[in-house]
Amino acid sequence: MASLSAAPRSRMPVALYALTAGAFGIGTTEFVIMGLLTQVATDLGVSIAAAGLLISGYALGVFFGAPLLTAATGRMPRKTVLVALMVVFTLGNLACALAPNYAVLMAARVVTSLAHGTFFGVGAVVATGLVGEDRKASAISIMFTGLTVATLLGVPAGAWLGLQAGWRATFWAVAAIGVVATLVIATLVPADRGERAAPAFRDEFRVLARPQVLLGLLMTVLGFGGMFTVYTFIQPLLTEVTGFAEAAVSPILLVFGVGMIAGNLLGGRLADRRLEAALLSSLALLALVMAGMAFALHLPWAMVLATGLLGAAAFATVPPLQLWVLRQAGDAPSLASSLNIGAFNLGNAFGAWLGGAVISHGGGLASLPWVAALVPASALAVALWSLALARRAPQPLPVHGSGCA
């Protein structure tokens, strides 16, 4: 079968959109629980705080489990891994829908989270192998569009369905998405091309000894940590500081979602042209947008604009950050890619903690944008350091791609 990287430049391979479908389902199941916490807590007889741990458990499962699962499946054909992960995802959501108690629901969420990090990690490698060298970041951004669309449409739809038919109905629906995504990936993603030499489990983890990989992961944690320092508390910022009514929050978050999609696609195009410039400019823009939000807090129209720009700036960093880590990984791209997905989730947890610490220590909601701006600014400093080191050292091995045909 001919390589899909030979497809005309005017269009992307259809297999990329199969990966997008899987990303949509995974993105939906990660965040939809936020809109179901009250129902879950009431039905299972636990506190809201305990129900909130279902979010933390998922994030920790991504961070710790995904690299281990990615390394363990390193010698398997990548298409086989992707299909198997979607099966795990589907079964995990079925288990959530049928969970008789809180403990089973938590376990099902953790199992499902394993599919998350490894799918995005391996999927990013497959995506880059489907296109030419000059479109690898755009390919990553198209796959991640599934995650952004899930935030924009899938999560609100899931929350609405849970309100109308109960929280279990939402997980049944997400499981159905998993079935469709599994079939689409099995049909459209090309099989691996011949045998693929994969490093041993222990050898693959040696990627963590590469300073440039570690610096790339740190950039990701700090970049998204800053975003979640603000976004975790966006509802009280909008209502208590800016003065919006509760009913206005959802439409404003739609603006954030549109910004995410636009920023993700733009970041991919810019990274394909000049990866280093895209990396630096996207992190700098994210810091500037957060600082600007501090001035927009008391102007409703400006706050709506700032919220959209926050989504755009944050997700413009995704393709350059992911591609940068891939390029530093040498012969362990799948593991490094999965580690970077875990770093996004660690940034989520770090940002939420930092924002909460600022509020609880008397900083107040209005100080969050200023504090948040310092976090991607520090990521920018790490990026400058990393680029300086890269110019002194030999060039890293190129991304080998998926080996698909």
From TrEMBL:
Highest rank taxon of the organism: Bacteria
Main location: membrane
Organism: Pseudoxanthomonas kaohsiungensis
Transmembrane segments: 14-38, 44-69, 81-104, 110-132, 139-163, 169-191, 212-234, 246-266, 278-297, 303-326, 338-359, 371-390
UniProt xrefs under InterPro entries: MFS, MFS_dom, MFS_Efflux_Transporters, MFS_trans_sf, Tet-R_TetA/multi-R_MdtG-like
PANTHER family: INNER MEMBRANE TRANSPORT PROTEIN YDHP, PURINE EFFLUX PUMP PBUE
Name assigned to this protein: MFS transporter
Lipid bilayer topology: Multi-pass membrane protein
Entry keywords, A to Z: Cell membrane, Membrane, Transmembrane, Transmembrane helix
Subcellular location(s) of the protein: Cell membrane
UniProt KW Transmembrane keyword: yes
UniProt domain Major facilitator superfamily (MFS) profile: residue ranges: 15-394
